[in-house]
Amino acid sequence: MPDAADEPPDIHWPAGFTPDRADCYSGARITVAAPAPRVFDLLVAAGGWPAWLPGVTGVRFHGACAGPLRQHDSFELLLAERHRFEVLVAELVPHRRLGLSGIAGGLQLYHAWLLTPSSGGHTLVASELVARGTTATAIREAPPVWANRLNARWLTGLRERTEAGGP
What we know:
Layout: E1 24-32, H1 36-43, E2 56-61, E3 74-79, E4 83-93, E5 97-104, E6 107-117, E7 123-132, H2 134-141, H3 146-163
Antiparallel strand pairs: 1-7, 2-3, 3-4, 4-5, 5-6, 6-7
Helix pairs in contact: 1-3
């Protein structure tokens, strides 16, 4: 499990969801050869996630949300065709950060994405996930560290889709 001291200092963790209070914590980073606005636009186009986020098999929006995610939007996320999460957009700062709060059976989570422009028009993307509950404890103990693998796969999918110019 990554050390919580390695977390980017700019992530705004909700009360009770800091890495040091988590039952499961995963942090990963990747550099994407694209500007932050392009990376961010792909992240907030949640309806397209099943096409490029490994394990995401469905997204169903609640209410009027039909386009890019906005602050306080809510939706249902389906992982591997069987795990349903109710998700709320808890934080959204265009081209900079996205924070998602989610619940599912035995699990509460907060997933933070932080985008930092870097040299040459690239973007450093940090993906930090904190989870609490009985399911989170089981995930933490699953070999090989399942949450870290999934987080790394999501970042790789984001980089590949962004660099290919995909929506």
